[in-house]
Amino acid sequence: MSNPFENDNASYVVVRNDELQHSLWPATNPVPAGWTVVHGPDGRQACLDHVERVWTDMRPASLVAALTGDAPRG
Any coiled-coil ranges, and where (predicted)? Predict the structure, then answer.
């Protein structure tokens, strides 16, 4: 059985959680609770490129808010 997250010929979406963390997700799989589609469906590389462009701060939003005193951005 092959890994559904590494199929270059499959369709994917990019999902984001409340902590503003992003993940690649197979478009044919149900989106997990607590995650929202923010890009796609699209090809695997296009989704990875999107994540690289938009997810520039890997820290969870709650940590950023605690450090800066700001409300999480969304």
Answer: none
Dump pLDDT digits (tens) for 34-55. 999 999 999 999 999 999 999 9
Name, in order, each residue with C-beta under 8 angstroms of 2's C-beta and a sequence gap of 6 or more: none
- Whole-structure pTM value: 0.85
CA distance 12 to 19: 21
Q: How far apart are CA 65 and CA 25, in angstroms?
A: 27
* CB of 43 closer than 8 Å to CB of 26: no
Two structure tokens written together for 2: 């092959």
1-57 maps to CATH 3.90.820.10? yes
Of 71 and 30, which is predicted with more confidence?
A: 30
* Single-letter residue type at 10: A
Residue 8 has which token pair?
Answer: 């270059």
